[in-house]
Amino acid sequence: MNKNYALVTGASRGIGRAIAIRLAKDGYTVLINYNTHLAAAQETLSAIEAEGGHAELLPFDVTDGKAIETALSQWDEAHPNEHISVLVNNAGIRKDGLMVFMTESDWHSVLHTTTEGFYYITHHVLGGMLRARYGRIVNVASISGVIGMPGQANYSAAKAALIGATKALSKEIASRKVTVNAVAPGFIATDMTADLDEDALKKTIPAGRFGQPEEVAALVSFLCSDEAAYITGQVINIAGGMG
Ligand code: NAP
Q: Is 88 a pocket residue for ligand 1 (Cβ < 6 Å)?
């Protein structure tokens, strides 16, 4: 019901791209957010259109509150009879390092990308969902935010914050038929993990392999479906048995 627009942050590459393609197949018009990689975002758009789906590019930096307000207000004005019924807060970065060596910049940039992005975008989009008495918010956290990973104090903190916000917000809005859940992927094969030693790391994963972005997208698709209406405030690990 109420299938309309789905905004996916960080949809130019990796998990976000797979989620955008999957939600377009589910019938949403997808707003493809990205920050710097225009060509990659255009590839996501082309992949959606090649399958007969619909999408628009919506660039902004998720840490820039003013840029977000401008982009989303302009979108609202251009689409007076439409609303965003699905929001996937996916954009994220990692800057790993042992805490003893971690710079202030690496601490703040990782925290800000996840937490500011969640705040500014959710804050803008939520009113429309509450008025419509329908909405789906999915936050892409990480197994690192659930169990803590060495060398990732910044990233684990950012994702744990996102999980806390997910649980709190779910209790505020459940009565308005707006759900908010988090997914917590383990190691997924994307640009973000391209520098890791996959052969060594997969020995630590019970399933014995990295996951694929499309596997995360399938979970997000379910959480965005009408069938998932009674699931809210949850963190669902998708980590091949880690956690
Ligand atoms: P990725 O391949 O590095 O892609 C990151 C995406 O986020 C890109 O589309 C990028 O846009 C966007 N992005 C980064 N900073 C942004 C900003 N300030 N504003 C707007 N967009 C921004 O990463 P991924 O592996 O797909 O990860 C996606 C999400 O899953 C992240 O939140 C990550 O923490 C989480 N995750 C990933 C894994 C994994 O193993 N890969 C595991 C657990 C959780 P540009 O292309 O424009 O730079």
A: no
Count of residues for the chain?
A: 243
Contact in structure between 31 and 8 (CB atoms under 8 Å):
yes
Q: Which amino acid is at 215?
A: E
Strands, sheet with 135-140, edge to edge from the N-terminal-most edge strand = 54-57, 29-32, 5-8, 84-89, 135-140, 178-185, 235-238
- d(CA 77, ligand 1 centre) in Å: 28
Residue 60 in tokens: 């902004």
Contact indicator for 11, 40 with CB cutoff of 8 Å: no
* CB of residue 185 inside a 6 A radius of ligand 1: yes
Locate 67 and state its tokens. 């840029």
Backbone φ, ψ for residue 194 (5° rounding): -65, -25
Distance CA 213, CA 187 (A): 10
**pTM for the whole thing?**
0.98
CA distances from 93 to 88, 110, 149, 200, 215 (A): 15, 6, 15, 22, 20
Percent of the chain with pLDDT strictly greater than 70? 99
Asked if pLDDT for residue 2 goes beyond 50, the answer is no
- Determine which one of 28, 120, 134, 155 is catalytic: 155
CA distances to 46, 48, 223 from 26, rounded to whole Å, are 17, 11, 12
Q: What is the distance between the alpha carbons of residues 152 and 196, in angstroms, rounded to a whole number?
A: 14
Averaged pLDDT of the chain: 97
* Amino acid at residue number 59: P
Residue of the nearest CA to atom 12 in ligand 1? 10
The residue among 221, 232, 231, 119 whose CA lies nearest residue 167 is: 232
Contact at 8 Å (CB) between 176 and 129?
Answer: yes
